[in-house]
Structure formats: structure tokens, C-alpha cells
Write a structure and sequence with these properties.
Keywords: Apoplast, Copper, Glycoprotein, Lignin degradation, Metal-binding, Oxidoreductase, Repeat, Secreted, Signal. Pfam families: Cu-oxidase, Cu-oxidase_2, Cu-oxidase_3. Its cofactor is Cu cation. With 574 residues, this protein is mainly β. 11% of the residues lie in helices and 36% in strands. It contains six helices and 32 strands. The strands form seven sheets. Strands 10-9-12-17-14-15 form a six-stranded mixed beta sheet, with no helix packed on it. Strands 21-20-25-30-27-28 form a six-stranded mixed beta sheet, with helices on one face. A five-stranded mixed beta sheet has the order 11-19-18-13-16. A hairpin with a 2-residue loop joins strand 1 and strand 2. The longest helix has 22 residues. The chain starts with a helix and ends in a 20-residue tail after the last strand.
């Protein structure tokens, strides 16, 4: 009898395995990266794009699929692609950030990215991870459930990716280069686009307005992606509300709202019910200004057009929030909770092995080569740091961080990123935003390439503390290779005695990018069960070249199945 029971169980297991394998597939595409010329804002503009489109091709897969992307770099620039939010378990060589997990693919070169989509469903995205090229080199990743599985929400009539991005009437590589040369902030963007369309608020763009055609009485799934380099957005559709069902490709409890708030790097999935009178309604993306730094208006709009709507009717415009409405943004960011009954939900690990307190913000660095237009006040240049360390990519050191980790190469990075800032101060004091002797004394941070080493499978809790040095703003922090639980967020200086009782251990959000509040803090927790070297950085692109980054070195586990595999044969060389 025991043998018979075992045989049945074994046979049933084979059936499950066969079913699982049958529902998994190989998704294989070629990404040709090259320069194209497009007409925008009354002039032709050369941009770098994938397969000749902006946005680039949408990558569709199901949970369990293997994705193979052959990247052919026909552009004049170095190139890498990051698959933003893909966990990359045991495939760190495909994560993509330049000089972190690979050296860049040179002009005329190629590289094959290969990874498996495991335990993830929803909306993610891919983008260039070199220079400012993700301004035009980006696209959506749509991960559907395995065959036979359904969404944890009612059936929808149609799924629609909505990508918000920025537009420069300039070469974005030159924009970054000019900022580097001057030590100042880069030229701001000239416009915002929805799915590549600038919209009718901009010159010569009346025929470049995105239109979403809908049928009355249906439910649509909007997969909203903020692909902008620096702009956080409020997103609204006139006379309509949304039901949030997922954040960063993790299902949430349903949350009703008439506005979506989304930072660069984040994704939000919402249900849109077309329950209004037949007509046309503007959808609007307008910047959320968490600070006044270089404030400029790059609002854009598309149109939701009901089937049967008059062609001559002026679309209805939504009432927009004030651009500085931080309470509204904070409400959206903190009121949504995780769906614990959803597939792939991960409970909060309760035992913490490593505690980190990471301050960050804008600072200064010494102007080494002073000259006309190359220095700011106090013989300085703009910089950024985490725990008073300003990160430098290991360019010119012969290997990426991951190669150095795998091959035990010295001289590429050091393992002494601090768990705490070097000194305490009133981190969110508004007086720190003014450049004076006191500010200068704490604004300078050394340049370094430091990582934090984590034991495999250890649990890490991080307090992210925003600072007000030279001004404060909402900073979206992205961790590669992991999702993390958002336990709590608040304003002012974090205080464990006061704030730990606020931790949500029951149903917190699981995210890969968190918008740390302006003048505030966030607490996250995750399990370091993915060996490799994983980048951590602000997703406001202006801040990354300034040094707003660090990396985690996660040690190998005890078995080959918990250790970094060998690099692929065609890994680009430095």
C-alpha cells in the first residue's frame, strides 16, 4: 500500500512538472539599437532607439518563461540594457547596469541576455543603463500568469501599457557630458510624452497626441510605467477613477483613487472602468514637485476617446493637483497594502541579521580642474552620496563589480560601505538647504567604489533617511535583484522608539523602487537570497553620475544552486 501511495504521488508530481514545463516557453527577440531621426517640437531630432520605435518593443512573457534577448549595438555609444524589476535569480550576468554586472557593449558589438521569469507577474520595464540613453531606449515588460491561472481581479476587456517619459531637443549624451564638464545640474527636459506622443500642449504636436479608444461599459487594465529620467508624476483621467491592483509587478489589495502618483522606475497597474457619458476625456501626466529645484512645467496629455464620441467635441480636462501636493503623494504611496493571498506573496522575514541606517542627498565635491564654467561656489561641483560616500563606477579598472566578485579580482572595489553615516546631525533641518559655512562643512563626501557584503540568505533592514543638504526632494531608490517590503514611511528624522510601532508586518507593499519622502524616511526589509553584486541607486538620473549609489555584494550560498554561475562566453570586455 505504501508503495502504491508513493507511486501515485510520484505520478502526480510528474503530471504537475509536465504541466509546468508545458506552460513555460522561450521568448526570444533581437533588439537592434541604432540612431534614428524623428520629428518633434518643430524640428528633426536624432535619437537612439531599439528596433526603430519609441518606446521600444513591448516584451511579453508568462511567469515561468525563459527570455532571450540578442542585443545588437548599431549605435555610436556604449550600451547595456537593464530589465528593471526582474529578480534575475542566478542570472546576474543579465541584469545590465554598466560596470556593475557587465562592461558595456561597444558600438558594433553584441550580447545576449538570458533570464527566467520566476515568481513574478505584472508590469515591469526595460531600459538602457548607460549615460542618459534610457530617455529613448526603453520599453514595457508585461508578465502574464501561467496558462490556466487568472488575475486576482475581474476579467478586463483590454490591457494597455502607458509609458511616461521625457523628451530633450538635444542629444542626451551631450546633455550629460555638458553637466559633467560644468559640475552643475543638466539641462532640463523640454517635454513629457505618453507612449512616445508629446501631446497638444506643445508646439507642432497637435497631431502627436496619444489617443486611447475605449468602449463604454468596459474595464481596462492600464499598465502605467514612469520611464522619465527625473520627473515624478501625478496621473489623472477626467471624470474617471482608478482601482490600483499592483505595484512594481506585485499584486495589492484594491485601492480606489482618482489620481496615481508614480516616481521614475515605478510601475502601477490600475483598472479603469469606462462608465462615463460617451465623449472624450483628457488623460494628464503632470509633474509632482517635491522641491523647487529647477522647477519647470512639462505637463502632457493624451485623450481617452469613447466609441461613438463626437469628433468635434473638446475633451474634458481633469482638475489637477497642486504640483507641490506632498500630502496627496504621501497618501498614495503609503495607503496601498500588499495582497497576501496573491500568488508569489512573500511574508515579511521577522528575524533581522543586519541593520543599516543610510542617509542620502545632494552634496559637493572638490573642483579638481578649475577653469571657466567648471566650478561652482566654494571651488566645488555638485555631487551626491549615500552615508557620506559618493559612488564612482569602476570604469578603467578592467572588470565589472560582478566579474571582480566572481574571479576574486582586487582593486576594483572595496567592501567597507558603512552601516551608518559617519556623524549625526539634524538631517532634515531646512536651514541645510542654504549654502553656508555650516552646510559646506558636512556637504563634501569622498569619492569611492564601496559595497556592502551580505551573507547569503541573511535578512537586512534598512532605514533610508533623506537629508536637506542643498535642498531636499523625494528620491526614488531602486534595488536591483530583489523586491523588498516597505514597513513604514514618514517625515522628519527617523526615531526608532517613535516609529517602529508603525511597522506593517501583516500586508506591506512589496516593491523594487521606493519613493523616499521629501524631508522624511522609509524603512524596508528583504532577504539576501540572490547571490551576486546588486546596484542600489537613486532613479532620478541626474543624481546617478553624481554618485547617488552603492552596491550589495551577496555572498554565494552552500550549493551550486545558490551560487553565481560562470559568466556567458560573449560577456563584453572592459
Amino acid at each position: 500500500m505504501r508503495r502504491f501511495v508513493f507511486s501515485l504521488a510520484w505520478s502526480f508530481g510528474l503530471l504537475l512538472l509536465a504541466s509546468s514545463l508545458a506552460s513555460a516557453a522561450i521568448v526570444e527577440q533581437t533588439f537592434n539599437v541604432e540612431d534614428i531621426t524623428v520629428q518633434r517640437l518643430c524640428r528633426p531630432q536624432v535619437i537612439t532607439a531599439v528596433n526603430g520605435t519609441l518606446p521600444g518593443p513591448t516584451l511579453y512573457a508568462r511567469e515561468g518563461d525563459t527570455v532571450i534577448i540578442h542585443l545588437v549595438n548599431k549605435s555610436p555609444y556604449n550600451m547595456t540594457i537593464h530589465w528593471h524589476g526582474i529578480i534575475q535569480f542566478l542570472t546576474p550576468w543579465s541584469d545590465g547596469p554598466e560596470y556593475i554586472t557587465q562592461c558595456p557593449i561597444p558600438s558594433g558589438g553584441n550580447y545576449t541576455y538570458k533570464f527566467k521569469v520566476t515568481g513574478q507577474e505584472g508590469t515591469l520595464w526595460w531600459h538602457a543603463h548607460t549615460s542618459y540613453l534610457r530617455a529613448t531606449v526603453h520599453g514595457a515588460i508585461i508578465i502574464k500568469p501561467r496558462l490556466g491561472h487568472s488575475y486576482p481581479f475581474p476579467r478586463v476587456y483590454q490591457e494597455v501599457p502607458i509609458l511616461l517619459s521625457e523628451w530633450w531637443s538635444a542629444n542626451v549624451v551631450e546633455v550629460e557630458r555638458n553637466a559633467t564638464d560644468t559640475g552643475n545640474a543638466p539641462q532640463r527636459s523640454n517635454a513629457t510624452s505618453i507612449n512616445g506622443f508629446l501631446g497638444d500642449l506643445y508646439n507642432c504636436s497637435q497631431d502627436q497626441t496619444y489617443k486611447l479608444k475605449v468602449k463604454q461599459g468596459k474595464t481596462y487594465l492600464l499598465r502605467i510605467i514612469n520611464a522619465a529620467l527625473d520627473e515624478q508624476h501625478f496621473f489623472k483621467i477626467a471624470n474617471h477613477s482608478f482601482t490600483v491592483v499592483a505595484l512594481d509587478a506585485v499584486y495589492t489589495n484594491h485601492y480606489e483613487t482618482d489620481v496615481v502618483v508614480i516616481a521614475p522606475g515605478q510601475t502601477v497597474d490600475v483598472l479603469l472602468k469606462t462608465n462615463q457619458v460617451v465623449g472624450s476625456y483628457y488623460m494628464v501626466a503632470t509633474p509632482y514637485r517635491s522641491s523647487d529645484v529647477n522647477s519647470h512645467n512639462v505637463t502632457t496629455r493624451g485623450i481617452v476617446v469613447y466609441d461613438g464620441a463626437s469628433q468635434t467635441q473638446t475633451p474634458i480636462m481633469p482638475i489637477l493637483p497642486d504640483s507641490h501636493d506632498t500630502p496627496l503623494a504621501h497618501k498614495f504611496y503609503t495607503n496601498i497594502t500588499g495582497l497576501t493571498s496573491g500568488r508569489h506573496w512573500v511574508p515579511v522575514p521577522r528575524k533581522v541579521d543586519e541593520h543599516m541606517f543610510i542617509t542620502f542627498g545632494i552634496g559637493l565635491e572638490q573642483c579638481i580642474n578649475p577653469g571657466p564654467g567648471r566650478c561652482l561656489a566654494a571651488n566645488s561641483r555638485l555631487s551626491a552620496n549615500m552615508n557620506n560616500e559618493s559612488f564612482v563606477l569602476p570604469q578603467g579598472r578592467g572588470a565589472s563589480l560582478l566579474e571582480a566578485f566572481y574571479k576574486n579580482i582586487s582593486g576594483v572595489y572595496t567592501k567597507d560601505f558603512p552601516n551608518n553615516p559617519p556623524f549625526e546631525f539634524n538631517y532634515t533641518d531646512p536651514a541645510l538647504s542654504t549654502l553656508n559655512a555650516t552646510t559646506i562643512a558636512i556637504a563634501f563626501a569622498p569619492k569611492s567604489t564601496k559595497v556592502k557584503t551580505l551573507k547569503w540568505n541573511s535578512t537586512i533592514e534598512i532605514v533610508y533617511q533623506n537629508t536637506a543638504i542643498l535642498g531636499t526632494e523625494n528620491h526614488p531608490i531602486h534595488i536591483h535583484g530583489f523586491n523588498f517590503h516597505v514597513l513604514a514611511q514618514g517625515f522628519g528624522n527617523y526615531n526608532a522608539t517613535r516609529d517602529e510601532p508603525k511597522f506593517n508586518f501583516d500586508n506591506p507593499q512589496l516593491r523594487n523602487t521606493i519613493a523616499v519622502p521629501v524631508g522624511g524616511w522609509s524603512v524596508i526589509r528583504f532577504q539576501a537570497n540572490n547571490p551576486g553584486v546588486w546596484f542600489v541607486h537613486c532613479h532620478l538620473e541626474t543624481h546617478l553620475p553624481w554618485g547617488f549609489a552603492m552596491a550589495f555584494e551577496v555572498e554565494n550560498g552552500p550549493t551550486p544552486g545558490t551560487s553565481v554561475p560562470p559568466p556567458p562566453a560573449n560577456l563584453p570586455k572592459c
